[in-house]
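Researcher: Next entry in the queue.
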Amino acid sequence: MDRMESLAGRPIPRAVTDAALALLLTAGCLALPVAMPPGGPELRSPDAYFAVLVLLTTLPVALHRLFPLPALLVAAVSAGVLQSLHYVPELSGPQGTSIGPTYVAVATAVFLTAMRCTPRVATLVGAVLIPAAAVNEAVLARAGHRITALFTETVLLVAAWALGRLTRARAAIRDQALERAAALEREQAANARAAVMEERARIARELHDIVAHNVSLMVVQTIAADRVQERDAGKAHELHGTIEETGRATVTELRRLLDVLRTEEDPAGDPSKEPPQPTIEALPALVESVRAAGLEVDHRTTGTPAELPAGSHLTVYRVVQEALTNTLKHAGRTRTALQIAWEPERLSVRLCDDGPRPDGEPVRTPVAAHGAGHGLVGMRERVGAVGGSLHTGTRPGGGYCVHAVIPLPPSTSVPASVTASAPRHEGHSAYAGHPRPAGR
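Model: Structure for this entry, 440 residues:
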């Protein structure tokens, strides 16, 4: 409402549009006596009064943004005086109908008032000012042309008024649409934040279980070492080393727990009664379960497995589980390649599918396939909690890829013979090992 749109789509300030309209109308009114054709109606010669009345008719348009109704009244009265003093042609006379610049100026002021003012003011203009202007035009017209003048003035001003109200209604609809879009965007952002918080709380509860298990194990090992210390010093020393390793792993998991912990919500139920968390060794069973559901999975593991913290084991399992579930849900019974690559300093997990089959059952396009679902949010949170990275994207030839990189502990080492055969990703795309690389 306050600005108009230029051809380039940029908003133009209301003051600029009003000033431009006022200048155009002023130039047209001042040039009217010169532009009149020979043999036209007899008009009074332009003088100082003519210039003042023209300015009073057109310049109020430039101030319309500040004083809408007074500007309209001044313009309408000045235009009526110009006609009554025969400075401008009659609206309807022996030479026919002539809508000059002064009438256009009044119609412009009516249009701007109807577009910018409240419904009450717009109704007042339509019910009082327009009929008054039409009656005044009929009174000033010559005998035999009054009905035509009345009708022409009414049609001109009513059309300008209706166009102004229509413009205001369309602007209101546009503003409502923008407001709804902004509200929807805020709601989606709030839902995404809620999903992140929920996933962080879930990860924190799982890491809590791991830390609690490690601490309990340390207590049991400490008691055992104390009991065998006098009988078998070597065995006690071995137990102390195990306790040290378990303590270091516990500290690492505890730091990750503090990183992801964002809520005070307590886990439901007794953690000690929960089943043990799955590890990478449970992936074959997971693959078999989705194969039973109809998904074709080609599962390969390369490299030499290394020791991983319990949190990393759980992260890999959950990422693969979520990726397979999304594939089965959104792509149907398609072909999927799952590759677990043990590398010198990291574990690479890549799952790529071929997308819905052309001859398969129709699958609706999910939001998650485009990176906006809560499943991808959860995977990113899990991988980030263990210091890894996650890349997802569609493939140029169809399908979708999920690639997670989990760092290995610094003490983990892989033989050189294995590293030579293990796939490396440095220097090229993370999906180069797949027949059709995934898009980023």
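Model: The beta strands are 3-5, 11-13, 92-93, 96-97, 296-302, 335-342, 346-353, 389-394, 400-407.
Researcher: Noted, moving on.
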